[in-house]
Amino acid sequence: MVSDKILLDHGSGGRVSHELVERLFLPRFQNPWLQDLNDSAVITVEGGRLAFTTDSYVVDPLFFPGGDIGALAVCGTVNDLAMLGARPFYLSVAFILEEGLPLKDLERIVASMAKAAAEAGVHIVTGDTKVVPQGAGDKIFINTAGIGVVPEGIRIGGREAKSGDTVLVSGTLGDHGLTILSQREGLAFESPLKSDVAPLSGLVQEMLACGAEIHVLRDPTRGGLATTLNEIARQSGVGIEIWEEALPVRDQVLAASETLGLDPLYIANEGKLVAIVPKEEAEKVLTVMRKNKYGREAALIGEVTADHPGQVVLKTLIGGSRLLDMLSGEQLPRIC
Amino acid sequence: MMKGFGFGESENHKKSKETKMCLAVPMEVKEVSGNTAWVELEGIRREVRLDLLEPKPRPGDYVIVHAGFALHRIDEEEARESLKTWKEFLAHASQTPE
Amino acid sequence: MPLKHLSEYRDKGLARKLIEAIWKRSHKPLRLMEVCGTHTMAIFRYGIRQVLPPHIQLISGPGCPVCVTAQEEIDRSVKLAGYPGVMITTFGDLFRVPGSRSSLQAERSEGADVRPVYSTFDALRLAEAHPEKEVVFLGIGFETTAPTVAAAVLEAARKGLDNFSVLSFHKRLPPALEALMEDGNLRLDGFLYPGHVTTVIGTAAYEKVAQTYGIPGVVSGFEPVDILESIFMLVEQIEQGRVQVEMQYRRGADPQGNLKAQELMDQVFRPMDASWRGLGLIPESGLCLRPEFKAFTAEERFDLRVPPAQEHPGCACGAILRGIRTPPECPLFRAVCRPDHPLGPCMVSSEGTCAAYYKYGG
Fold first, then answer.
1. Model's pTM, two decimal places?
2. Is B41 within the bounds of a domain?
3. What distance in Å separates the CA atoms of residue C133 and residue C116, rounded to the nearest whole number?
4. What is the per-residue pLDDT for C92?
5. Per-residue pLDDT at B21
6. ipTM of the complex model
7. Testing the interface with C: which of B5, B18, B35 to mutate, by most C Cβ within 10 A?
8. Which of A14, A37, C151, C236 could form a disulfide with B51 if both were Cys (CB 3.0 to 4.6 A apart)?
9. CATH superfamily of A166-324
10. Mind telling me how many Å the CA of B25 is from chain C's nearest CA?
11. Which residues on chain B are in Cβ contact (under 8 Å) with C140?
């Protein structure tokens, strides 16, 4: 490979394509399936039902404090599997590259993916690369699909919340989205905000292992905590009440939201989860979460009620209350 | 050639979406140079114009910022006094029967 | 202390004590009006209505600059967007307000160059960066914003820019207050005055309202403690039969206002008659550029005459802005008019009363 940029040739399937696979992807994503370079990876899974998910990643900028598009592409999909109680095992990856993308950037992204995959204990076993002419894409788009196994007896899902349950969150809110937006707004920083992008499969495994009954797990990505809780409230036909003073938000995130006129409750998180568990399990689950590096600031933030089914209400810090609606319309663009 | 959510041209979608109108937050002045100053809130820095302030603020002052301009210099002493007066009043009021 | 000058005013303990004090002191039924979009939002955001005694009613007035922009003004902006080579810049949610025939957003999707900016200076920079374009800044906002636009116009003059102009829809709040008071349908016991408009104009105009109409007022900051303090102060005045203009927001405003900002505003703008959505034509309630600044006046550069404006039939935005109706009383509210499908600016604007009721629950 003579060029330091991605060329149309890299997507052609010819020699230059092969070199990209052999010199970049194979060494990084080391595993026997990929090594075989077959059209498909043939894998065996046992021990339960298959969980299967996919997501595409178009975040801009590509690199940001705390992570990059590669880390997102692995963690996002791993987390989607983990939220159903699945152990994630295998990922596929598809790249759509814009002609002219610096090879150095691609190398950095791939290294980041490998690192995240190793931490999550997953293998990237099959992939595809396409290159589009300059202007027909925007640097890089990534799609990942993931397979995991849900053990028998696990029944976790959006419909499972019950009146009387408590609502837990694994840590501070709004970090990822505000980091991206602040980068875009060109807000200068002294001590920068960081994205929270992280693989949560380990945390979830520990939560399951402690034997507590868990009803719902969900990661509050686009639309933030508010949207996620609304989805659950509707799916389960219950009401949810959360308490403003219990919500963990970093001072910097609060300050950034004030400056940009945004609400952290509607901002994407990429390394956090919401857990809804029976009241009597809350203490146990929180203890387990706080022992994990991604759950140190886990907090109890609210409860599930039979009142106002399908709606989420926020109790404000002065004792008032207001509806916490879903994010309507204006999604913040290219956050993940 | 820019895609994105219809903001028109802007490198890396730098411009914010529709900004809240009356948004004005108190920020600390870090540096002053002529008609502009760098102000900060919890590590977030912005550059603001000082056209509307006379006399110009100094590093350490707190100003209210609106639409890229410093609008008012907060009188720390005044703010502290005011808070103190309220707290005293309320402590007394909660003891007095109606 | 983190978030200095913000967190003290979000102190839960202080808020609780203020709420208790209000309950203790307040006996008469009260109708209090705020005239600032940020106050509208803060009251909803913190659930202030729920913690007050039921006999105190908080009413939203014409405090949202986008909402009070007249339909005809929207139509003129839309016409401007249609001129080739024009780049329209503005802040606020003006883009999505439906005019008689179109909106800025719709024009943009048809290829018009319409861009959001954070500050008028961003618009100036765009004008410098794009000499081939005619950059027009749509000036909306009350006296908090007008001085910033004045400063930008002066800078444009200093730099000799020949492709920058302002289409002013700026409005002055005091004439609207008088128009509200003249409205026989509206009964009010007190005003919550906007903190940052006061930072610029001071309290003299409110003194006149207090004397002429016998209505007390308090200039309020925007944090929950500020608002509760202000309501307490209003309750005290009313229970004691006083009519005054008091300053709760002492850290953010002086009684004389910001003299420099007033000077700049006066140098560049002069009052003119203006049409407010909901309130109709109010004499001397708008601001237009003085003749010396003809070179930066959009109406001098472009023909912006438009046919008579049409608002959506059934839209109660006007009555809502006057404080005589609430959104749930509008037949279109929720049924047809929603944030993703707004029929009037009160639902479009992030500070609009209808948007607030929809989002936070009435």
1. 0.88
2. yes
3. 16
4. 66
5. 39
6. 0.90
7. B18
8. C151
9. PurM-like C-terminal domain (3.90.650.10)
10. 8
11. 21
